[in-house]
Design brief:
Layout (H helix, E strand, L loop, with lengths): L1 H23 L2 H4 L7 E5 L4 E4 L3 E8 L6 E8 L2 E6 L6 E4 L6 E11 L3 E12 L4 E12 L6 E7 L2 E6 L6 E6 L5 E6 L6 E7 L2 E6 L4 E6 L5 E6 L8 E3 L4 E4 L4 E5 L6 E6 L1 E2 L2 E2 L3 E7 L2 E6 L4 E5 L6 E6 L16 E7 L4 E6 L4 E9 L3
Parallel strand pairs: 2-8, 9-27
Antiparallel strand pairs: 1-3, 3-6, 4-5, 4-7, 7-8, 9-30, 10-11, 11-12, 12-13, 14-15, 15-16, 16-17, 18-19, 19-20, 20-21, 22-23, 24-25, 25-26, 26-27, 28-29, 29-30
Length: 362
């Protein structure tokens, strides 16, 4: 009886493990290392695909002795679909799919649970974005000593995060005059970066210290600080459900608004490929807007797909007469959801501007 029970339990355990490996899409778990028995023939490795196009997923059986029960296709580890006849293809419809690099796996099942797999990679690129310029509606004073890293509109004032070691602050600033109404200093060893308002609290991240600070919005009292594994912190915004963070790459990281842990990420791409140096962020009417560091460009991003839908040329905004020795790059976007006012400034700029977009030919 003991022998029979043991055999039964082993069968159950192995059966459960096999099923979980299928669901996880783990190639190391389900595939056989050698020899190769299956090859993905479409799409080709590194193929560039325009968003909205259908991708025909097809395989070739390298080992003619294999008689498949089914072929399963996964994209980034998630099950896309299954075909019964290995000679057929599966059309992957990419409309509304995330852009950027996507990893494809084909798993061939045969002989009562045996499997073989192969991999391919494609890059999905969106259509060309719309192009914009701007017109200045109002000009305000801005503290030229403020190395602006984050900017948020809040009930007639700005919440501004500033950077540099020994000079980093969180401050509340009056729009009309630029006067600082309240301020708190970060530790001298912390280089402050983006800020985001979540209900009655404020999150502020740091550059290389991998630390985020949570403050009471009214008092600026520190509620807690947490560590995160992302190597650098640049921009931060809030979409009403999740915090969204940049790190200077082409990635946007979705972070839990309470624990500040990563829940997902997307790659940002335009029609030429990944868009890097994403810096200060603002969530505006369902889009993420981002300064591209060291440039005069702001991009508008579809947060579901990562596609750049618009590019705003901000060149010439701060006139040469207003530039001083320490004047740095464009950085800082704030939006008043109620009145639809859009504000921009830069690091150590003496002015802050309310602007409106105007269409521009490419």
């Amino acid at each position: 009886m003991l022998y029979i029970t043991t055999v039964f339990l082993m069968a159950v355990i192995f059966g459960c493990n096999t099923d979980s490996k299928i669901k996880s899409g783990n190639p190391a778990a389900v595939g056989e290392s050698a020899p190769q028995k299956v090859a993905i023939v479409s799409p080709q490795q590194g193929q560039i695909v325009k968003s909205g196009e259908g991708i025909n997923l097809k395989i070739n059986l390298v080992d003619s002795l294999i008689h498949p029960d089914s072929v399963q296709f996964l994209v980034d580890g998630y099950r896309l679909g299954t075909i019964k006849n290995s000679k057929d293809g599966l059309i992957w419809k990419t409309r509304e799919e995330k852009v950027g690099t996507r990893n494809i796996e084909a798993i061939v099942w045969y002989d009562a649970g045996k499997s073989a797999n192969d991999f391919s990679r494609v890059e999905i690129r969106p259509s060309a974005p719309a192009y914009y310029s701007y017109k200045v509606l109002s000009t305000y004073h801005h503290d030229p000593a403020a190395y602006t890293q984050g900017l948020v509109y809040d009930r007639g004032t700005f919440l501004e995060g500033t950077g540099l070691y020994g000079q980093s602050t969180l401050r509340r600033v009056k729009i009309e005059s630029g006067d600082v109404q309240k301020s708190v200093n970060l530790p001298k060893e912390i280089f402050g970066e983006g800020v985001a308002m979540v209900d009655d609290k404020i999150w502020q991240i740091s550059w290389k210290e991998q630390t985020a600070y949570l403050y009471n919005k009214s008092t600026f009292d520190l509620i807690k600080k947490v560590n995160y594994p992302i190597a650098e912190g640049w921009g931060l915004t809030y979409d009403g459900a999740s915090l969204i963070m940049s790190d200077g790459s082409a990635n946007l990281y979705y972070m839990d608004k309470e624990a500040f842990t990563e829940t997902k990420r997307i790659e940002v791409c335009d029609d030429h490929g990944p868009v890097k140096s994403l810096n200060e962020l603002e969530y505006i009417d369902g889009e993420v807007w981002a300064n591209i560091y060291t440039t005069d460009t702001i991009v508008r991003i579809n947060p579901k797909t990562g596609a750049v839908t618009g590019k705003i040329d901000m060149s010439g905004l701060l006139k040469s007469a207003d530039r001083q020795q320490n004047t740095d790059v464009l950085n800082g976007i704030a939006y008043d959801n109620q009145t639809k006012r859009l504000f921009v400034t830069g690091k150590n700029w003496p002015k802050l501007f309310q602007i409106a977009l105007t269409p521009k030919k490419r």
